[in-house]
Amino acid sequence: MKNQIIPIGPLSKYEEEQYGEIVEWENKTPSVVGKTVGMLMKPVSWVVEKVIPSKAIEGALAASNKVAEMLADTKDIVRDASVSRIDELRHKDLKLSDHLANEVHNWAIGVATVEGGAAGYFGIAGMAIDIPTLITLSLRTIHKIGLCYGYECKTEADKKYVLAIMSAAGANTVQEKSTSVATLQAMNVMIAKTTWKKMAERAAANKYGLEAAIMAIKNLAKQLGINLTKRKAAQAIPFVGSAVGAAMNLAFINDVAWAARRAFQQRWLIETGKVAPAQ
After folding, report:
1. Is residue 65 a contact partner of residue 139, using CB atoms and an 8 Å limit?
2. Which helix (H) or strand (E) holds 5?
3. Looking at residues 73-102, what average pLDDT do you find?
4. Is 159 in contact with 128 (CB distance < 8 Å)?
5. CB atoms within 10 A of CB 170
6. Can you name the residues that pair with 232 across neighbouring β-strands?
7. Residue 207 has pLDDT above 50, yes or no
């Protein structure tokens, strides 16, 4: 993928290192690509797709984003960062924000692993609870990590940004990952030219805005349906479901957290004038 954002400085040594990590993440092959479902797993995969159809995931995405936003409280971030308001973190220190995000990241991994193991104990029946819970936790993680960098994702533009992060984390192919990253980059570039408030006003004035948002959720639901089926097919097998559920939830939430961290790092670097769109 062509790098659309370049450093314009001055960058600290730490910021330069993180910029390199952002570029590396953008070009990294999705982790699920190697998790192909073999011949012996195809019947199980078919059953999993019936248990977690894209319609169910679509409903979970639509309902969970608001719940995740409410669950991502700001009090602990404000306290740990020693700031009076979340938006102060937009211009404070990237290393501090990364430290806060790392705490959120580790907490999410712990919760997702325990939940996946518990749901996996019940095999395929547990997936009906496991999948919506994992989606809610994933969206909550994105919102919470956004807070670590000073961003409360409440506008319509922000909601699209959150979905784009989920899409990058749940990519099944290199092409899907590239498309999602390009979307994130384009939205980050807009930050350099306008404000999120103005973007939200423009979206509200667009009569196709609602239809576009619905389509984005539909497409993401299909993508996540494939991704989670690949990851969780073995969870339906007796005696191993618990271990698989724990491991796959850990892997998925780790992908989500890293996607959120890299996206918000780049957004922070643009807003502080450290990087800019390539000419």
Report:
1. yes
2. strand 5-7
3. 95
4. no
5. 27
6. none
7. no
91-107 pLDDT, tens per residue? 999 999 999 999 999 99
Q: Which long-range contacts (CB under 8 A, 24 or more apart) does 192-195 make?
A: 192/270, 192/271, 192/276, 192/277
The rounded mean pLDDT for the chain is: 81
By C-alpha distance, which of 129, 144, 131, 134 is closest to 111?
A: 134
- Please tell me the distance from the alpha carbon of residue 70 to that of residue 81, in angstroms, as a whole number: 20
* Separation of first and last alpha carbons in the chain: 16
CA 188 to chain CA mean position, Å: 15
* pLDDT for 191: 60
Helices (H), 92-195: 94-120, 127-148, 156-169, 174-193
> pLDDT at position 61, please?
81
Q: Count of alpha carbons within 13 Å of 19, Cβ hemisphere only?
A: 20
Interval 162-185 mean pLDDT: 89
- How far, in Å, CA of 167 to CA of 221, rounded? 9
The 3-state DSSP class for residue 11 equals: coil
Return the pLDDT at 236.
65
Q: How far apart are CA 269 and CA 267, in angstroms?
A: 6
Query: Which pair of tokens denotes residue 186?
Result: 């384009």
Distance CA(41)–CA(74), nearest Å, equals 43
Q: How many whole angstroms separate alpha carbon 194 and alpha carbon 72?
A: 26
What's the DSSP call for residue 34?
G
Which amino acid would we find at residue 47?
V
Q: Tell me, what's the pLDDT at 60? A: 74
Amino acid at 235: Q
Positive or negative: CA dihedral 194, 215, 174, 124: positive
Of residues 176, 139, 177, 129, the one with CA closest to residue 161: 139
